[in-house]
Amino acid sequence: METRYTHSPEDIRHYSTEQLRKEFLVESIFVPGEVRLTYTHNDRMIFGGVTPTDKPLTIELSTELGVTYFLERRELGVINIGGPGSIVIEGTEEPMKKQDGYYIGKETKDLQFKSEDPSNPAKFYTVSVPAHHKYPNVKISIDKIEPMVTGDSATLNHRSIYQYIHPNVCQSCQLQMGYTILTPGSAWNTMPCHTHERRMETYLYFDMKEDTRVFHFMGKPDETKHLVIANEQAAISPSWSIHTGVGSSDYTFIWAMCGENITYNDMDMVPMKELK
Q1: Structurally, how many domains does the chain consist of?
Q2: Residue ranges for the binding site?
Q3: Fewer CB under 10 Å: which end of the chain, C or N?
Q4: Residue 57 per-residue DSSP state
């Protein structure tokens, strides 16, 4: 597990491209047969990929977190973006096809991740945040979510937002997590852009072709910077930063948030004329 520390807007003002990528971009997430996690001190979120092949994988962390097992004081969200697999929770196995998600509550001790076919492994994207209360574990399928359709094809931002871990779907302490799919022909996500001082966010971009890229914008509204992101890479977005992106072709992304509240629309919109 790699640790990333927090930064103020003043810190990044003079960052080079290399420095910006080192601090805010996670380039390697899904490695066959491995668990790859990043621990950001922005609201102490842990996120990354679990990619089992010929044997189950578990998340085993204690020294870094000062606990005896991973979810002793945390909750966890999972979405599979790869081949078919399963999650074994306290001895009960649940199948997980692509786009299936799971909310797993605090104090869950026994957790294993499996793939049906090692040559087409499941890719479990996992996000964990501190939790104060144990809520029930809930399996969440994209087929049972009524998407929130927003944006417009005229502004190239028509998209469907699937809220997996959200008060409309299941209870959580502070984790929110979802899946956004852009309509063919649209390229912008979260535009007009916004900030939300009360929570941070991470973005995983995927379902991209090898030679395509997403330009993920960050920074203060009047001092924007960008990260060029390839398939299955993620960006850390602090609470003070805008987060919006545009792709050279179609793409999908998973967003995950934590912080002061779980009100999805608690955000501060940024007028286009204020962007610089």
Answers
A1: 1
A2: 194, 196, 201, 243
A3: C
A4: B
Q: Is residue 275 part of a domain?
A: no
CA angle 112, 114, 115 (to 5 degrees): 170
Sheet holding 199-206, edge to edge: 25-26, 233-237, 199-206, 252-259, 176-182, 159-165, 148-150
Q: What is the dihedral of CA 240, 241, 243, 247, to 10 degrees?
A: -170
Range of the domain at 163: 2-6+13-269
Q: What is the pLDDT of residue 177?
A: 96
Read off the CATH number of the domain in which 71 is found: 2.60.120.10
Express as a percent the part of the chain with pLDDT over 90: 79
Residue 274 in any domain: the answer is no
pLDDT, position 190: 84
Predicted model pTM: 0.94
Annotated binding site for Zn(2+): 194, 196, 201, 243
**150 lies in a domain?**
yes
User: What average pLDDT does this structure show over 140-163?
Assistant: 92
Can you count the helices (H) and strands (E) in the chain?
A: 2, 23
